[in-house]
Every structure is written in structure tokens, then in C-alpha cells.
Amino acid sequence: MNTMMPKNQGSKQLFQNPVLEKLTRTHIAVPLTVFTLYAAGLLYWSVRHNLLSPALTISLFFAGMFFFTWVEYQVHRYVFHMSTDTPKSIKIQYLIHGVHHEYPKDKERLAMPPLLSITIGTVLLLLFRLVLGDFSFAFLAGFLLGYALYLAVHYSVHACAPPKNFLRYWWISHSMHHYKDGEVDFGVSSPFWDFMYGTSTLRLRTKM
Predict the structure, then answer these.
(1) How many domains does the chain have?
(2) S-S: 39 plus which of 96, 141, 176, 208, CB 3.0-4.6 Å?
(3) Is the residue at 195 inside a domain?
(4) Among residues 42, 13, 22, which one has the least CA distance to residue 148?
(5) Closest residue by Cα to residue 13 from 87, 105, 99
């Protein structure tokens, strides 16, 4: 990954075209609202139109949330922190995530733009529908709510002061990722996969 010193003030213009530049920014309330409603709509459709038991619907919903935490970890580690061994890969990595590491306090770039997110969510629905059939609606509802919770956590750890309780771990973990070592603590919404894959600073410390 292209390393750089974080700047806790300011922002970065990515595109000269004002429309493209605007599409890289969003207020956190927009994607939170969109994906919570998207998830609610999918869950309603599943309950209304699929002959699934309440227990199975709930199980699929929470399975989708759990699966999101794994996808979040994998995307953050291997896509957002991709190998940057060519000028093109350096530019791509910077556009999709490097700018966030350079300007971690830029509140308008703490979430993927809604247009892109909705497109990805719709593609996921089509893919899950092929694999899971009628199970896909409840599963994707959980997956998208997991994404909304991730956005809320990510925004909070960058924009708010850490709380004085056990939730403080989220702030500490993500600060380690941004300010100490960008190759650890990839999980934002959950530390589970960092522990499983050995990239948690807390786990690494206990081995020393």
C-alpha cells in the first residue's frame, strides 16, 4: 500500500470535473437511510412473499449480517489495501481508499457514495438470488444492515470522541490501523476476523 502521513484537517480534490467530484462525497445520513430502508424492504418482501418460517427468516437475516463482517474484512484487506507495485495500481488504490488514509477526518468521504453502493447492492441481490433463491431476500437484508452498522461505526470512530466504556475498543483498534500500522486491524465493525486471521494488534501483543 502507498504509505503517507495522515492529515487530520482538510480534504483532497480527486477530480477536476465537479460532477465526478461531487459523486465522491456524501453525508453519512444518506447511505445510512438508504441501506436501512433497502434492508427493511427486502425483509418485508421476504416475510410477505416467501413461505419461510419466522425462525428461518431470522436465521438468514443474522447469517447475512455475519457474512458481511467477513466480506468487510476481505475487501478492506485485499482490495482497499491492494498491492501497489505499478503507477496505475497506486492511483486506483489512492482513489478508492488511500485518500481516506491521508485525510481520515474528512467526514464527506467516510462512506461509499450512495449511487455506487446501491449499484453494488443490486448486483449482490442478483448474485444471491442465483445462489440462494428465495433465501436471498432475508439474507441480503441482514447483509445490508450489517453494512449500515459498519458505516455508523466507521463514521463514529473518525468523527466522535471515544466513549469511556468497552466500545472504546473500536476507536483504539481503528486508530492503530490508521496511525500505527495499516496492515493490521482491518475489521471496523467487528474484531472477529482480525483475531481469526492473526491481524489483530491485541492478539499480536499477547503473542509477544
Answers:
(1) 1
(2) 141
(3) no
(4) 42
(5) 99
Cα separation of 187 and 73, whole Å? 5
**9/48 Cα distance (integer angstroms):** 48
Going from the C-alpha of 205 to that of each of 37, 75, 114, 185, 202, the distances in angstroms are 40, 24, 38, 12, 5
Give the model's pLDDT for residue 136. 94
**Distant-in-sequence, close-in-space partners of 40: CB < 8 Å, separation ≥ 6:** 141
CA distance 35 to 151: 10
Amino acid 137: pLDDT: 94
Is residue 193 domain-resident?
no
pTM of the model: 0.88
Q: Which of 172, 150, 147, 151 lies closest to 161, judged by CA?
A: 172
DSSP string across 107-147: GGGSS--HHHHHHHHHHHHHHHHHHHGGGHHHHHHHHHHHH
Q: 169 near 191, Cβ under 8 Å? A: yes
Pull the grid cell for residue 72: 468487510
Is residue 184 assigned to a domain?
no
Distance CA 35, CA 200 (A): 28
* Residue 49: domain span: 18-167
Mean pLDDT, the chain cut into blocks of 10 residues (208 residues total)? 66 82 86 92 92 93 97 95 88 88 86 78 88 94 95 92 89 91 93 93 57
pLDDT for the residue numbered 208: 42
Residue 208 placed within a domain: no
